[in-house]
Design goal:
Blueprint lengths: L8 E2 L16 H4 L12 E2 L1 H6 L3 E8 L2 E7 L8 E4 L6 E3 L7 H9 L5 E3 L9 H7 L5 E4 L12 E4 L3 E5 L2 E4 L10 E4 L8 E5 L3 E2 L6 E2 L1 E3 L4 E2 L2 H11 L6 E4 L5 E2 L3 H16 L24
Parallel strand pairs: 6-7, 7-8, 8-9, 13-18
Antiparallel strand pairs: 1-2, 3-4, 4-5, 5-6, 10-11, 11-12, 12-13, 14-15, 16-17, 18-19
Helix pairs in contact: 5-6
The structure holds zinc ion.
Length: about 290
């Protein structure tokens, strides 16, 4: 399998483009949800990253859930997840590095049947991943079509929800990006359901909470109406765990309550009307919840 070793990869966001792109700027980094590094736009490639010692890391995020990242860390440093179920594994988000070693490891884990992306910052080398895995479909929400750097095998899906394989349903939460998507996994590793959230709902260092931002690096808050719409869409689904975009950024109990409490805390801080949100759940000792008990 010949990988696209020399296609340009933005050194700041890790997204791989077609060779003919205007190299003066990466469109994803020029947007105010990202930034151009102080030294100016820089490009690399899979070949140069490998020469610099980067490799793909595959390890269990928690028992039963495998993650795929790039080590040493590169660009935004997100890691993807291998979400299992009937009909094959889904690769949820992906990182830039890819090599024969990781493809062998993924075959041992049962292969990958489809790729799905949360938003443009994690597109990375998705077209190369798809081709290397047998030209499998890449699900991207149509509302983010303008950001797609390479269209090979991309399936633009529309609407609020789409089950791409049994038990794995994409939800267009629309936070952070209009096409911002989370993946509901009906069982999760513990049978109680999980949300793979990328940084559409980002797990913050205090892992009892999530954040909702239009831009994380530039600290631009998300609009409250987008957050309340996202909660209306996501909360009818059952989930106790929530997996964020980086190693260790996971909530393993009462994630459903954590999302609601986090939205209330956010609305309180920005002075938005919490009447637009679902009511706060009763505090649970396991989650260390704070807030107004009903
Ligand atoms: Zn970029």
């Amino acid at each position: 399998m010949e990988l696209d070793l020399d296609h340009p990869v933005c050194a700041a966001c890790g997204v791989q483009y077609e060779p003919g792109i205007d190299r003066s700027i990466c469109p994803i980094c020029a947007d105010d949800r990202q930034y151009v590094a102080w030294g100016g736009q820089q490009w690399t490639s899979l070949r140069r990253l490998a020469a610099d010692g980067h490799r793909t890391e595959v390890r269990e995020e928690i028992p039963g859930l495998w993650g795929i990242g790039t080590t040493p860390a590169f660009a935004i440093a997100q890691r993807g997840l291998v979400v299992p179920g009937e009909g094959g594994n889904v690769l949820w988000d992906c990182g830039p590095m890819i090599g024969d070693d990781v493809l062998d490891r993924l075959r041992e884990l049962g292969g990958i049947a489809a790729i799905a992306l949360s938003h443009p910052h994690y597109y990375s080398t998705m077209a190369t991943w798809s081709r290397a895995l047998g030209d499998i479909p890449i699900y991207v929400h149509a509302r983010d079509e303008q950001w797609v750097p390479r269209r090979d095998n991309v399936v633009f899906w529309e609407g609020e929800r789409r089950e791409i394989l049994p038990g794995r349903t994409l939800l267009n939460a629309g936070v952070h990006f209009a096409g911002g998507t989370v993946l509901h996994w009906d069982t999760g590793v513990d049978g109680r359901g999980a949300l793979c959230a990328g940084d559409i709902f980002t797990v913050v260092p205090d892992r009892r909470w999530v954040g909702f931002m239009y831009s994380y690096p530039n600290l631009i808050p998300e609009r409250p109406e987008r957050i309340s719409r996202a909660l209306d869409l996501v909360l009818p689904y059952r989930f106790s765990s929530l997996y964020g975009a980086w190693w260790g950024r996971i909530i393993t109990d009462d994630a459903h309550g954590a999302v609601v409490r986090s939205a209330h805390r956010y609305f309180d801080r920005i002075g938005a009307d919490a009447a637009d949100l679902p009511p706060l759940p009763r505090p649970s000792s396991a989650s260390g919840a704070v807030g107004t008990p009903s």
